[in-house]
TrEMBL record:
Homology family: Belongs to the glycosyl hydrolase 20 family.
Keyword S-adenosyl-L-methionine: no
Pfam assignment, any one: Glyco_hydro_20
Record field: catalytic activity: N-acetyl-beta-D-6-sulfogalactosaminyl-(1->4)-alpha-L-iduronyl-(1->3)-N-acetyl-D-6-sulfogalactosamine + H2O = alpha-L-iduronyl-(1->3)-N-acetyl-D-6-sulfogalactosamine + N-acetyl-D-6-sulfogalactosamine; a ganglioside GM2 + H2O = a ganglioside GM3 + N-acetyl-beta-D-galactosamine; a ganglioside GM2 (d18:1(4E)) + H2O = a ganglioside GM3 (d18:1(4E)) + N-acetyl-beta-D-galactosamine; N-acetyl-beta-D-galactosaminyl-(1->4)-beta-D-3-sulfogalactosyl-(1->4)-beta-D-glucosyl-(1<->1')-ceramide + H2O = a beta-D-3-sulfogalactosyl-(1->4)-beta-D-glucosyl-(1<->1')-ceramide + N-acetyl-beta-D-galactosamine
Protein name listed in UniProt: Beta-hexosaminidase
Glycoside hydrolase family 20 catalytic domain segment(s): 180-497
Listed CDD domains: GH20_HexA_HexB-like
PANTHER family registered for this protein in UniProt: BETA-HEXOSAMINIDASE, BETA-HEXOSAMINIDASE A
Length: 539
């Protein structure tokens, strides 16, 4: 038998093969590292049929081409350059140059985009695609540019290298679409500033995992790095340093554009009335003065809800944000509001007395949040809020999205939110700032979002979820390995079918995907003891 064919047959293991088990030092059985087929796809597609038939990919001549009926656009042209570079880099790393003798060699991926390109991704974008690696042609087809982007990532993952350096693809047919439309990552740039290069690296990793929302928790109590052109003192006085730890208008535009080219929405969060200490440094009169008896203490609490200047400021700032961030949605927060300072302030207590809501500080919060929601709606934003806004019975717009984050019966909260008719996101089980010894990705992988009591109509109101990495203990030095590949587990849960939930089968695939990310320059941490083969294997 031809030596080349023997090599391919030895290297190929079908996707259904049960991996062998070993034990880690905690006594947990985990699959051995190499027991999965080369060129496995993460997240797992909705439908994939592959055979042991392989075709060589002639990297030095490979090109992405449009079919005669395809629409074309610059966004796809940029994507072609990125993925062609991945293939060329893999070929360049090989010290051996094998000349294929196969009857069919892949030199092109034919792209059929069936509709005009959209400018920006949205909640309603269509990410479905079909991909066929066949005997005489290789074609990717989708009704939207976003589907083509997801298909390009899948195609890149199908490619694999032999020990001789040859790049191959198995005969494969894939029909794929995401299970949920909102698949997000929250990064916190207030508690620790994240350099632009780190944000770009993680946006790239999001694209490799088919994550489509960057939830940018850009400001908080600790710092205000967003540079407002209308209120420049917010960052001048509220950032850790106004010289370096800031995001200028050009920086923000660069993040939005980098994300757009990868089909990723950028949803900013400006959380009020709590989590706003840094705001007050650059906006006098915004925060509530705290009192001890009848004297101010010199400290400040949440945003002051009883003065007109607060709402003038919010309307002006949010109008600027509406012109900066192209996504329809803004995250307005509304969580963890401490009432202690409001309780101490005599002006607030007199205001509440006049409204006959004495002692009901949650009702005062309702008044504030309702006004901010109304302002946001008037200037053209739809909004996402944390679950406390619903718990406090604030009246919301019909297209409001409610994010469930408190990990205390989140299933009951999802049932309540969807029964009220609101769309929901699940974040509660996926707070990645909580770490533990061992392979904690498994518990994230096993969380099933739809396991709450509700009608079919309610289940459809759950539009996805987010993995959240808060910034107390991560900065540019460790945020990427802390996030990946743990967030990859959430990515597959939100993209793939509900029944794709076998940890034993997922482990070797995720190990392969982690090695793929490392090979592409993402500093993803290891799953367990083992190694990555960098000279051959993943593209």
């Amino acid at each position: 038998m031809d030596k080349f064919i023997v090599l391919l047959l030895v290297g190929y293991v079908t996707a259904n093969t049960q991996p062998g088990l070993r034990q880690n030092r905690l006594g947990t059985e985990v699959p051995s590292l190499g027991d999965t087929s080369p060129g496995s796809v993460w997240p797992q597609p909705q439908s994939q049929t592959s055979t042991s038939q392989t075709y060589p990919v002639l990297a030095e001549k490979f090109a992405f081409t449009y079919t005669s009926s395809s629409f074309r656009c610059s966004l796809l042209d940029e994507a072609f350059k990125r993925y062609q570079m991945l293939i060329m880099n893999a070929a360049a790393r090989s010290k051996l140059h094998f000349r294929p003798r196969a009857p069919y060699t892949i030199t092109t991926l034919d792209i059929n985009l069936m509709a005009k390109c959209e400018d920006y991704p949205s909640l309603d974008m269509n990410e479905a695609y079909s991909l066929d690696v066949g005997e005489s042609s290789t074609q990717l087809q989708a009704e939207s540019v976003w589907g083509i982007l997801r298909g390009l990532e899948t195609f890149s993952q199908l490619l694999w290298q032999t020990e001789t350096g040859e790049i191959l693809a198995n005969k494969t047919n894939i029909i794929d679409h995401p299970r949920y439309s909102h698949r997000g990552i929250l990064l916190d740039t207030s508690r620790h500033y994240l350099p632009l290069s780190v944000i770009f690296d993680n946006l790239e990793a999001m694209a490799y995992n088919k994550i489509n929302v960057f939830h940018w928790h850009i400001v908080d109590d600790q710092s205000f790095p967003y540079v407002s052109e209308i209120y420049p003192d917010l960052s001048r006085k509220g950032a850790y340093t106004s010289l370096s730890h800031i995001y200028t208008p050009d920086d923000v535009a660069a993040v939005i554009e980098f994300a757009r080219l990868r089909g990723i929405r950028v949803v900013p969060e400006f959380d009020t009335p709590g989590h706003s200490q840094s705001w007050g440094k650059g906006q006098p009169g915004l925060l509530t003065p705290c009192y001890s008896g009848d004297k101010p203490t010199g400290s400040y609490g949440p945003i002051n809800p009883i003065v007109d200047s607060t709402y003038t400021f919010i309307q002006t700032l949010f109008t600027e944000l509406r012109n900066v961030f192209p996504d329809k949605y803004i995250h307005l927060g509304g969580d963890e509001v401490s009432f202690a300072c409001w309780q101490s302030n005599p002006d607030i207590n007199n205001y509440m007395k006049n409204l006959n809501i004495t002692g009901k500080y949650n009702e005062l919060e309702q008044i504030y949040v309702q006004k901010v929601l109304n302002i946001s709606g008037q200037i053209g934003f739809s909004y996402i809020v944390w679950q406390e806004v619903v718990d406090n019975q604030v009246q919301l717009k019909d297209d409001t999205v409610v994010e469930v984050w408190i990990n205390n019966h989140p299933d009951e909260e999802l049932a309540k939110v969807t029964k009220l008719g609101y769309r929901a996101l699940l974040a509660a089980p996926w707070y990645l700032d909580y770490i533990s010894t061992g392979e904690d990705w498994m518990k994230y992988y096993l969380e099933e979002p739809s396991n709450f009591n509700g009608t079919d109509a309610q289940k459809k109101l759950l539009i996805g979820g987010e993995a959240c990495l808060w910034g107390e203990y991560v900065d540019g030095s460790n945020v990427t390995p802390r996030l990946w590949p743990r967030a990859s587990a959430v990515a597959e849960r939100l993209w793939s079918s509900k029944d794709v939930n076998d940890v034993t089968k997922a482990t070797p695939r995720l190990h392969q995907h982690r090695c793929r990310m490392v090979k592409r320059g993402i500093s993803a941490q290891p799953l367990h003891p083992g190694y990555c083969v960098h000279d051959w294997g993943n593209i």
